Amino acid sequence: MFQKKGERPNDVKTIRDSLLRFIKEQLQKLEGGEGSNIKALQVFLSPSEEEKHLYDAALYLEEENRFKNEEVQKIADDYAIDLPKDWAMEIEFVETPPAEAIKAPDINAALFIQTRKHSLHKTSTAYIKIISGEAEKDSYRIESADGRFNLGREKQVQAEGGFFRTNHIAFPSSSKNEHNKFISRQHAHIEYNNETGCFVLFADEGGIPPRNKVKVLTKGEEMPVKLLSTKVGHSLEEGDQVMLGESAVVEFTYNDI
């Protein structure tokens, strides 16, 4: 049966062929060796729940990198698009593709070509829930656009050099809660990494040995990760528990609380 104009593909092979044709058309627009500047092809899929299994199969999502290596790389080779050896492909199911992504005309997909000159500005929202210790609020909402999000004792403190630091999650010294005692004024902060699309936790000067501690326990893991440097961050995952000092604990989640 021929596909009618404007009709969405509803079988695995047609979805795969339509997406490959769309990717080929976008790659062919690259001129003057621009293919060598590609960092990643980001494919955003937004089918209905009933169609999701078709897109799963069309992109071989159960076989890591098969769609990238067997299908897309072949297009690049056939049309002499000189992709770098370390180019990546990211495939993500979303409700709405980012505004910068180019929408495919006949399937529920969009494509963003990330180059060394042009990166997709991702946005995300997460929440911090206070598990033990007493902060000014029981939970906090953080946005990728917020920039640096500080955690520490007291709302506003004077840092080294005389400048003032605002703790967005502040644990008051006046609290009688025992868990607040070992939280530093400059304990930790969270930043959003646009390249990886995730929130990253960093220990600050007061949160590394020999002062107080920052530890992260991920679901399913037995041992926590200790942050020992202010330079190396830890990418936060759903349900991560972060210990500040000896016993104050906050939980990271993408689910509204």
Layout: helices, strands, pairs:
Blueprint: H1 12-27, E1 38-45, H2 52-58, H3 66-78, E2 88-93, E3 102-103, E4 109-115, E5 125-132, E6 139-143, E7 149-153, E8 156-158, E9 164-166, E10 169-171, E11 188-193, E12 198-203, E13 214-217, E14 225-226, E15 234-235, E16 241-244, E17 248-253
Parallel strand pairs: 1-2, 7-10
Antiparallel strand pairs: 1-4, 3-4, 5-6, 5-17, 7-11, 8-9, 11-12, 12-15, 13-14, 13-16, 16-17
Helix pairs in contact: 1-2, 1-3
The low-pLDDT segments are 1-6
Order of helices and strands: HEHHEEEEEEEEEEEEEEEE
> Could you tell me the radius of gyration in angstroms?
23 Å
| Mean pLDDT over all positions | 87
Short structural description:
The protein has 257 residues and is an alpha+beta fold. It contains 3 helices and 17 strands.
Structure description:
By secondary structure, the protein is an alpha+beta fold. It contains 3 helices and 17 strands. α1 (about 10-25) crosses α2 (about 50-60) and α1 (about 10-25) crosses α3.
Task: Name some characteristics of this structure.
14% helix, alpha+beta, 6-stranded antiparallel β-sheet, Tumour Suppressor Smad4, 257 residues, disordered N terminus, 3 helices, elongated, 2 domains, 17 strands, 5-stranded mixed β-sheet, single chain
